[in-house]
UniProtKB/TrEMBL annotation:
Keywords of the record: Coiled coil, Kinase, Membrane, Phosphoprotein, Transferase, Transmembrane, Transmembrane helix
CDD domains in the record: HisKA (cd00082)
Reactions this protein catalyses: ATP + protein L-histidine = ADP + protein N-phospho-L-histidine
Any one Pfam family match given in the protein's UniProt record, by short name: HATPase_c
The protein's name in its UniProt record: histidine kinase
Native species: Hymenobacter wooponensis
Length: 463
């Protein structure tokens, strides 16, 4: 084989080196133009070979010259990639080997005597340069792997960051939509609440008017008795006055008869005054009930208040149903005294409880017409600790267990549609618990009867 033909075998080695470098440093991406130029790295080798043939060069250094040219191209490439750490490492790896090759080539071209004299030293230097080259190439390879891991990690972090940003944007959009929806719902709720309050006010007023209607019906019946007494005693008194005038016109006047007539007349006037006051008391109670509560507490005789509203509620029901009759039982504690309370409010509570009690016994009477006596009782008692207790009991239909916990809820009623608003017991509960710091509880047994218990604490004051 000719000495010049060795360069033909060096060209594939150069191509392999360049190909490895292009892949290792990803030149198509980093340096696309230089990468394209390196595809022609075989051209200098071919030119040297053709020139050697034409000029009949007799030297075996053409392959080394070509390799130095290849290494120069590699070094230029690495200098262009000096910001890339593995490239700097490979550049550092090639420096000793390139210097050694250049010195060796120079010595060969100048005669080679010095090279032959120190052949062992140059072989050792070559070995050191090769070891240095491969060692730093391995280091560069590890650096590339580490940088690749860092790149992948950064890409994952960037991807995660973009994902988080997208999610945040989506969340902000959803929050914005939800906020707008909640704002709209809040506005709708405010409007609904306003309408509910208006409706509630109307229903409360309706309940008060219904209560007033019950009271008025009872008053119309109850006030008839004292008015009848007043009328009757007025007529009798007028007759006594006529008889007295006739007696005084007689010649033989009877002083004893005149005195007796005057005594009867005085008694009649006292009875007229008594029943007139009774009628005035009933009217005053009606006015107090219809008047808005002032919230001011005054001494109240619960015995009198309970008795009066019991009879008013009873006569109110009888005004609607003349066939209805019930037994009224009162058990009043004579040592009860008075309590500090708002009489109009407590009157509404008692009237509501009595009305419900009469309604319950009336319904039971309709179901059990034979052998059943409707009975409504009211009991007052001062407990040992000073609290005042009022019990309203009936032997009516009772309250089903399923609805016992709901009876004090607003708008809940067990009555058929049109017969109750469901506010009576709710208002009564608020008056007792919130207005007087007391308690209102119920004890009932379905089919046997119901008892409501009002307890007013001694803090309300006693006389």
């Amino acid at each position: 084989m000719s000495v010049n033909t060795t360069i033909l075998f060096t060209i594939p080695v150069a191509l392999l080196i360049v190909r490895s470098m292009r892949r290792f440093f990803d030149l198509p991406t980093r340096l696309p133009r230089l990468n394209q130029a390196l595809t022609w790295i075989w051209v200098p080798g071919a030119i040297l070979y053709v020139a050697a043939l034409l000029m009949k060069w007799k030297t075996d250094q053409l392959d080394e010259i070509y390799l130095l040219l290849v290494f120069a191209a590699v070094i230029v490439t690495l200098l262009r990639l000096q910001n890339y750490r593995p490239a700097r490492t490979v550049l550092l790896a090639m420096v000793p080997y390139v210097l050694y090759s250049a010195i060796e080539l120079e010595l060969e071209l100048t005669g080679g005597a010095f090279l032959k004299e120190y052949d062992d030293a140059f072989d050792t230097s070559r070995g050191f340069a090769m070891i240095w080259l491969f060692t730093f190439i391995l280091i560069a390879r590890n650096q590339k792997k580490q940088l690749e891991k860092e790149r992948i990690l950064r890409e994952e972090e960037e991807k995660a960051k973009r994902l988080i940003e997208a999610q945040n944007a989506e969340l902000e959009r959803l929050v914005g939509e939800r906020t707008a929806t909640l704002t709209q719902q809040a506005e709708e709720l405010r409007e609904a609440l306003t309408e509910l309050r208006i409706t509630q006010t109307q229903l409360i007023q309706s309940e008060k008017m219904a209560s007033l209607g019950e009271l008025t019906a009872g008053i119309a019946h109850e006030i008839q008795n004292p008015l009848n007494f007043v009328t009757n005693f007025s007529d009798v008194s007028a007759e006594l006055i006529e008889e007295l005038e006739e007696e005084r016109q007689r010649a033989d006047r009877d002083p004893e008869l005149e005195a007796e007539l005057l005594v009867d007349l005085k008694q009649n006037l006292q009875k007229i005054t008594h029943h007139g006051q009774r009628a005035a008391s009933i009217v005053r109670g009606m006015l107090e009930h219809s008047r808005a509560s002032t919230g001011e507490r005054q001494p109240v005789d619960l015995n009198v208040l309970a008795d009066e509203y019991l009879r008013l509620a009873y006569h109110g029901l009888r005004a609607k149903d003349k066939t209805f009759n019930a037994t009224l039982v009162t058990n009043f504690d004579q040592d009860l005294g008075t309590v500090q309370a708002v009489s109009q409010d407590l009157g509404r509570v008692l009237l509501n409880l009595f009305t419900n009690a009469f309604y319950a016994v009336q319904k039971k009477k309709e179901r059990c017409p034979d052998g059943y006596t409707p009975t409504v009782s009211v009991t007052t008692l001062r407990q040992p600790d000073g609290d005042v207790e009022v019990r309203v009991r009936d032997n009516g239909t009772g309250i089903p267990e399923a609805v016992q916990k709901k009876i004090f809820q607003p708008f809940f009623t067990t009555k058929p549609t049109g017969e109750g608003t469901g506010l009576g017991l709710s208002l009564s509960y608020d008056i007792v618990t919130k207005g007087h710091n007391g308690t209102l509880t119920v004890e009932t047994s379905e089919g046997e009867g119901t008892e409501f218990v009002i307890v007013l604490p001694r803090a309300d004051g006693t006389e």
